[in-house]
Design goal:
By secondary structure, the protein is an alpha/beta fold. 39% of the residues lie in helices and 17% in strands. A seven-stranded parallel beta sheet has the order 3-2-1-4-5-6-7, sandwiched between helices. Helix 1 packs across helix 13 (338-353). It starts with a strand and ends with a helix.
Length: 355
């Protein structure tokens, strides 16, 4: 029986992009493998972080932080090691087939582009030992190849899935507000550009803005200060972290989903909002045009006053053909499917193991 190790300890952060990726990939792999003789070893800090009701093909292997150090690395031999994101520090002790999944290389801009920097060297090491590489978007593939020495190994672009079913769309109860609202969600990092949404709202008095995500960090404090500086605390709400159910409720109830991020490797929230048929306003940069498609609206320049004008114009265009836009967006969201993604990953696994 073949043994595959999934370095999946980031599953503990369920509400992060990595956490969502790990959880939904593992859950969908169970549906994909059927009766194949394969064992998956799931690396996680706590068993309760894993999807429920996994079958006997999935074995919990407890995560310990000290395994990042050479002599404490995982010594059990596997037919394949899948590193589920580029930031993990846990590596196999033995030289074994190694699949690397790359979500972004934001650290090049945010930490260092110096190839002598430890962060860059750690990533280059992962590239050097990789038997194959998967990217979550074409944009990430192009960026990686532009900044690093990528070995001549098989490389694939496999898009993330969309976890929102038609049943969820129909059964979700929309969140209401005292007036129509715009919605956004994400980790409070500077590249998300939430502060620009705040400034934009002074030009949109007819709307409220709701932003979800952990704002208890430096950038979140900056965003809050901007809200108070502009005296917009009655127009803008920061919810903090929200449950999946509340997130869906905000998406169903919003007038539009706004996402001006400058450096997304994929962008799960826009896909989720798309599933509800909502107008999407995205930054025309990084992977967002690749993911958003032709029926989303794009900000070419992130000037708050211009953003407000373009949002009003986009909403008017959407309202002129609501069925056209809504149905096309829902149709596009359905093409991002976790079972499809899991099937593609499993095919890569088999191509490596059977080589």
């Amino acid at each position: 029986m073949k043994k595959i190790f999934l370095e999946s300890h980031n599953i503990k952060n369920f509400y992060s992009g990595f956490g969502q990726f790990n959880f939904h990939l593992i859950k969908s792999l169970q549906e994909v493998i059927k009766e194949d003789p394969v064992l998956f070893f799931l690396h996680a800090e706590k068993k309760k972080s894993l999807p429920k009701n996994l079958n006997r093909n999935f074995i919990f292997k407890k995560y310990f932080g000290f395994r990042r150090y050479g002599i404490f690395r995982v010594r059990q031999k596997f037919d394949l090691w899948h590193c589920l994101n580029q930031n993990t520090k846990i590596e196999p002790y033995h030289s074994i087939p190694y699949l690397l999944t790359i979500h972004d290389i934001n650290f090049v801009k945010e930490i260092s582009s110096d190839h002598d920097h430890p962060r860059i060297q750690r990533f280059q090491y992962k590239l050097n030992v990789a038997t194959a590489i998967t990217y979550i978007s074409q944009y990430v593939k192009e960026q990686t190849q532009a900044h690093f020495n990528v070995p001549e190994v098989p490389q694939y672009v496999i898009y993330n899935g969309n976890s929102i079913s038609q049943e969820i769309v129909e059964n979700t109860v929309a969140k209401e507000s005292d007036k129509s609202y715009l919605y956004s969600i994400g980790d409070f990092l500077e590249r998300k550009n939430f502060h620009l949404l705040v400034t934009m709202m002074q030009y949109l008095p007819e709307y409220n803005l709701i932003i979800s995500g952990n704002f208890n960090k430096d950038y979140g404090i900056r965003v809050k200060e901007e809200i108070y500086r502009l005296n917009l605390q009655n127009q803008i709400t920061l919810t903090g972290k929200v449950s999946e159910e509340d997130k869906f409720s905000y998406m169903k109830g919003c007038r539009a989903f706004v996402f001006p991020s400058s450096n997304e490797g994929f962008g799960l929230p826009p896909i989720e909002a798309m599933a509800f048929g909502k107008p999407l306003f995205l930054h025309h940069q990084a992977s967002l045009p690749e993911i958003g498609g032709k029926d989303s609206f794009y900000w070419q320049h992130l000037n708050p006053e211009t953003m407000a004008k373009e949002l009003i114009a986009g909403l008017s265009e959407f309202d002129a053909k609501p069925d056209y836009y809504s149905q096309n967006l829902k149709k596009r969201a359905s093409t991002f499917n976790w079972n499809k993604a899991a099937t593609e990953y499993y095919n890569v696994y088999k191509s490596i193991i059977n080589k």
